[in-house]
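hey
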């Protein structure tokens, strides 16, 4: 198979979908790897390392999209790339289609076999390809919050850790999954006062056991949210429903109740956000103020640490990419139910229920389109 890796064009996205080590694995398996020139520079990965691994560099992105049987990306195609999508081509990347009707329709129209990293799901519910980026975004969030709390960045002028005799910042984390648990752990390590809210008692119990009471865990309900949101300095939203739009937990009224100079970081923004006042921002223009509250809603937070993120992502995605390249998508999903969950659009039809419901489109079960799936 010809595997293509174009340069990412999303605002300040410096990650690349394949490491030199991954390229070597692909080449050794008999595949051709085409990489756009400059695609890995932002991740501090020299082209020479890829060349030694057997990859070939191509000057124009259009040539990669035209020649490749499978496109590996980090972020969803941008509008400038829609016309490059090709029928029956496999696109393997983060898609977050529930928050993007225009992209969903483009994939359907072009009849692309679109496989989303974020919906590849194991039998126990874990999301192995989303986990590394959720982990990174969660760990970044308290650092971002600490910076935005500084007066020069619009915050209340609070030191996250506090000092002797002065209270630390109070941080509320919405969701106790991968991103949330990492955000809570880092915030606690920065000596903030941390609260985590979730509806899953097992997740809360795990955090409580690990941190031995250092992090306060609370069951999620409307009244608890209303009370806690208005008293904290930083809210970190991490709620996720695989493939579907994130549920809105914090209303505009709750945001208005927060003290001026408080901070909201909505990691869920890729899936539409879990805070009513959230709207997508970029690394080049990351914040805005609404109701006196600083909002940070960058859709590709891990792109700020591209070397770390590229390796974390590549470690998780490479086995699946090798399976698709070696077996073809149809046989790969027959053998791997987890990968089958990743297929969001196939043969011009939406195959993910969450995406279909988000846009009012019909959903077609993948096993009715591919023979031999159990």
């Amino acid at each position: 198979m010809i595997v293509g890796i174009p340069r990412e064009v999303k605002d300040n996205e410096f990650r690349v979908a394949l490491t030199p080590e991954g390229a070597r694995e692909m080449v050794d398996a008999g595949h051709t790897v085409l990489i756009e020139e400059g695609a890995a520079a932002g991740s501090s990965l020299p082209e020479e390392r890829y060349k030694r691994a057997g990859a070939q560099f191509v000057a124009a992105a259009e040539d990669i999209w035209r020649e490749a049987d499978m496109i590996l990306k980090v972020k969803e195609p941008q509008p400038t790339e829609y016309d490059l999508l090709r029928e029956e081509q496999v696109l393997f990347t983060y898609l977050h289609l529930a928050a993007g009707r225009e992209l969903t329709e483009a994939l359907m129209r072009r009849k692309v076999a679109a496989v989303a990293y974020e919906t590849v799901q194991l039998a126990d519910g874990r999301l192995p390809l989303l986990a590394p980026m959720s982990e990174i975004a969660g760990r970044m969030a308290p650092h971002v919050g600490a910076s935005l709390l500084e007066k020069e960045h619009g915050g209340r002028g609070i030191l996250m850790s506090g000092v002797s005799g002065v209270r630390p910042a109070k941080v509320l984390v919405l969701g106790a999954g991968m991103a949330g648990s990492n955000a809570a752990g880092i915030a606690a390590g920065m000596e903030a006062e941390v609260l985590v809210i979730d509806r899953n008692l097992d997740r809360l119990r795990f955090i409580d056991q690990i941190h031995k009471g250092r992090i306060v865990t609370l069951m999620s309900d409307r009244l608890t949210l209303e009370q806690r949101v208005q008293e904290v300095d930083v809210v970190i939203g991490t709620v996720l429903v695989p493939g579907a739009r994130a549920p809105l937990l914090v209303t505009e009224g709750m945001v208005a109740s927060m003290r001026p100079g408080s901070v909201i970081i909505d990691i869920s923004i890729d899936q539409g956000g879990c805070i009513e006042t959230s709207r997508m921002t970029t690394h080049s223009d990351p914040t805005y103020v609404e109701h006196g509250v600083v909002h940070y809603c960058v859709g590709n937070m891990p792109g700020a640490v591209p070397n770390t993120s590229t390796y974390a992502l590549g470690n998780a995605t490479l086995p699946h990419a090798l399976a698709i390249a070696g077996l073809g998508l149809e046989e790969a999903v027959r053998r791997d139910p987890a990968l089958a969950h990743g297929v969001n659009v196939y043969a011009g039809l939406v195959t993910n229920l969450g995406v279909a419901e988000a846009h009012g489109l019909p959903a077609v079960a993948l096993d009715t389109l591919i023979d031999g799936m159990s």
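The longest strand covers residues 193-198. The radius of gyration is 21 Å.
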